[in-house]
Design a protein that fits this description.
It comes from Algivirga pacifica. About 10% of the residues lie in helices and about 30% in strands. It is mainly beta. The strands form four sheets. It has a seven-stranded mixed barrel with strand order 12-19-16-17-14-13-20.
Length: about 290
């Protein structure tokens, strides 16, 4: 077992997500930063869809009741093991009785903790990911709480050395240096005048505080509005879809996004761009440019 001493701000069980159920109205969910999930599991030489803990902004304190091996990737929450600093992006042997503590994010927004053998919660529709809004998956369909006992695989590491990877450090942004994200044209891209598209692509947007796993709300001085005045029936949406509501301030749908929407879809983020955006904090800045998959 893994005992939760402090739960952190928002710590949930996530994997690659709940695919092939959008037509049933079930969101994909899964790790917001899929690249960090991939490498956390690769460091432990296990399937890359193995369930991990996703920690947001402030990480948890965890006590191990069993030996295992872990890897920590994504944002830097200054992890310590029994009070001693440990590195990101490497495998770490853990003994029964050890305590892992993560603090506030010094870079990025989300950190991932993988365990050798994974987190042993039930699969629902082919995934162990938590959908907090619907209240299912993960550990009892919710974020971790103090006192929770999380089942993990016991594993005695006999690794002679540690496995490490080199990853680019996560960017921070400002008005002068926003993070630039590639998009492709959305289904309603042509509803917007050419001048509006030019303005959209040269505008710097700030991520607002009411952004979450379902969607990132952006704000700027620019209010986008489609030139084509046409009622849009509810249509399919996927993570990465950029919707333009009547306010003219874009919403970028993220991993827990609903399956249909009624706002014009001006663009769609690439998969890599979704990963990048998932590490952008509220108050930081982004811009968009036309790219390719």
């Amino acid at each position: 077992m893994l005992e939760v001493i402090k739960p952190g701000l928002l710590t949930t069980v996530q994997d690659k997500g709940r695919w092939n159920h959008l037509h049933e109205g079930v969101p994909i969910s899964g790790a917001m930063d899929q690249e960090a999930l991939f490498w956390a599991n690769r460091l432990l030489t296990q399937p890359t869809d193995t369930a991990v803990l996703e920690c947001t902004m402030i990480g948890p304190t965890l006590c191990f009741h069993t030996p295992t091996e872990i890897a920590i990737t994504g944002g830097d929450m200054a992890p310590t093991l029994n009070g001693q600093a440990v590195e990101l992006n490497r495998s770490i042997a853990v003994k029964a009785g050890d305590t892992l503590s993560l603090g506030g994010a010094r870079s990025g927004l989300r950190t991932y903790i993988a365990f050798k053998g994974g987190i042993l919660v039930p699969e629902i529709l082919g995934s162990r990911s938590t959908n907090i809004i619907a209240g299912f998956g993960g550990f009892e369909g919710r974020a971790l709480q103090k006192g929770d006992l999380i089942p993990i695989q016991s594993y005695c590491s006999n690794t002679q050395g540690v496995r490490k990877i080199m990853m680019d450090s996560l960017e921070s942004s400002s008005v002068d240096t926003p993070i630039c994200l590639p998009i492709i044209k959305g289904p309603e891209y042509r509803w917007f005048a050419e001048e509006a598209i030019v303005d959209f692509l040269k505008t710097t947007y700030q991520v607002t505080a009411d952004s979450n796993r379902m969607g990132y709300r952006l704000k700027s001085q620019l209010a986008l509005a489609p030139t084509l005045k046409k009622e849009l029936l509810s249509s399919g949406v996927v993570p990465g879809t950029i919707q333009v509501p009547s306010s003219g301030q874009p919403i970028v749908l993220m991993r827990d996004a609903q399956t249909t929407g009624g706002y014009p879809r001006i663009g769609v983020l690439t998969e890599k761009a979704i990963n990048q955006l998932s590490q952008v904090r509220p108050g930081e800045f982004v811009r968009f440019y036309l790219g390719t998959f």
